[in-house]
Each structure stands twice: as C-alpha cells, then as structure tokens.
Amino acid sequence: MKNRMAPKRRRVLTLFLIFFLFLLSFASSLLFGQTPITAGEVWKSFSAFNDEATSHIVVQSDRLPRAVIATVVGASLAVAGTLMQALTKNPMASPSIFGINQGAIFFVVIGVVYLSLSSLVSLMGMAFLGAALAAAVVYVLGSLGRDGLTPVKIVLAGAAISALFQSYTQGILVLDEAGLQDVMFWLAGSVSGRTLDMLLPVLPFMVIAMITALLLGRAINLFITGDDIAKGMGQKTLLLKAVIGVIVVLLAGSSVAVVGAVGFIGLVIPHVARFFVGHDYRWVLPFSALLGAVLLVSADVLARLIIMPQEVPIGVMTALVGGPFFIYIARRGVSNL
C-alpha cells in the first residue's frame, strides 16, 4: 500500500508546484508591462480601486483580462490537444489536425472581406462557426468507409481540410491585400486588447467541455488500450470518439474565436504532462490544463517585454517553444501515449 501511495503523493506534490508556477506567472502578468506597476499598486487596484489612478486602470482594464483569458485559453488548448492525441493515437496530433485553426481563420477572412464585418464579437462568431464546420467535415470524412473512424483516416482528412482552408485564405488575401491588415491579429494570435466581455459568450461552453473532459480520464485509459479491448470491456467507443470530438471543437474553437490562431500548446503540453505523471489520463488531463495555463500566461508576459514598447504576437512566442519541440518529437518518433 505504501509503495502504491508514493507515486500519488509525488503527483499531488508536483501538481501543487505547477500551481505555484501558475500563480507566479499570473502575478507577473499583472505586474510587468510597458507601464511599471508595483505589487502594492496591484493590490490597491483590487482593494481600493481609484478610477483616476493610471496603474489601477491598467490592471483592471488590460492586464487582468488578458491574464484570465490566457489562463482559460491555455488550459483549453492543452486539454484539447491531449484529447486529440488520445483520440488519434498520434503523438504529433493537436487541435489543428481537425482544421480548427484554419477553418476559423478562413471564416474570419470571409467575414472581413466579403461581409464587411468589423466588430470583434461578429468576427468571434465567424471564427467559432468556421472551427465547428471544419471539425465536422473532418470527422465525417474520417468516418467514411468500412472501418469507420480510424486514426489514420482522421489524420489524413484533417491534413487535407487544413490545407484546403489555408489555400483559400491565402487566395482571398492575395486578391484583397487590405483585408490582410484586418485579420493579421487572427493569423498570429494575441490576447492584447481582449476584454472579459469577449470571453463571456464562449465561457459556458468551455467550462462544460473542460469538466466533461476531466471526467473522461478513466474511459480514455481504457480506450487507448485498443478498440477491440475497449469494446470487449463494454465501452461504447464510437460514442466516446464523438464526445471527444465535440469537446475538442468547443475548447479549441472557442479559444481560436477569442484569441486567434495560437499553435503548439496542444502539441507540446500533453507530452510534458505525461512526462510528470505517466499515461494515466485521470492525471494527464488536469496536469495538461494547468501546464497549458502556465505556458500561455508566461508567453504573454514575455511577448510584451521582449521588444517594448511594441508587443510580439503571442502565437509567435508559443511557436518559439513549440517549433523545436515538434522537431524533437518527429525525430524521436514518440509513439507511446
């Protein structure tokens, strides 16, 4: 009993340490930026807000919303990536394998260039619609044929749809260069200028999807042993695949709708989580959520500090981490999920 409890204690301790890193990154997001703000001023902005104090306004109207949004989006993308890798049994899978990013961006471009949409709320709606449609098309294409939905078919379908949407987007922007400036934010990804009001419309979907995902850990443990074994144990694998697909759409689609295309979190974080806790998805999923939040909040802090007073798009920062990691995974040939 003692030996079996030891790994659990280590996991709990590690989880608390990562949570401490999250608190540290969240506090850093409130403190650091173009306008220097002390910890005391941050505290006063919550305990005794003064609408005439610049530091209080900066914290409440800019830094707090972007820290909260980065937390929610980072956790959502990480969990979505974890589920995608479990669903496809592919260690290089991420939400973009469903064409979610590309579908969302394509619909945003359509909204800007052809529908003359300009409000962020309208563009968020277009992004979510495009993400959902792309995922639905990939799921249907991956399910065609005698064997139904298989990892290989869904990967091929995702790659094809992603390339299709990307080529359409590039074609439209070549014909209308003015539209490129309007959608640059969505192409690169950023939490700058986002408000909590922009998160609220999709937050209920993200919360429901996140809670459902965390409850699926035991079922996923059985699923990754193989379809035949899972079916033999009485699991309804087709239903589980459908539920996972819906969760991925809700988490990743909502994230893209709020902050644009932020890549590599869904690819990198699941591997880091499995490094800490092994392959028990009852632990991998919550670790992924917390690690994803840490990564995106930290990336946002670095994005605003590197070339002050300007900011680097947060998607560029995550790519700096995820690009080399992607090459490492490809060269190593990781296959054990």
From TrEMBL:
InterPro entries for the chain: ABC_BtuC-like (IPR037294), ABC_transptr_permease_BtuC (IPR000522)
GO molecular function, one term: transmembrane transporter activity
Keyword check for Cell membrane: yes
Keyword set, alphabetical order: Cell membrane, Membrane, Transmembrane, Transmembrane helix, Transport
Subcellular location: Cell membrane
One Pfam family it belongs to: FecCD
Membrane topology: Multi-pass membrane protein
Main location: membrane
Gene3D superfamilies with a match to the protein in the record: ABC transporter involved in vitamin B12 uptake, BtuC
GO BP term (any one): siderophore-iron import into cell
Membrane spanning residue stretches: 67-87, 99-117, 123-142, 154-175, 195-217, 238-269, 281-302, 314-331
CDD domains, per the entry: TM_ABC_iron-siderophores_like
One GO cellular component term noted in the UniProt record for this chain: plasma membrane
Highest taxon of the lineage: Bacteria
Family label: Belongs to the binding-protein-dependent transport system permease family. FecCD subfamily.
Name the record gives this protein: Iron complex transport system permease protein
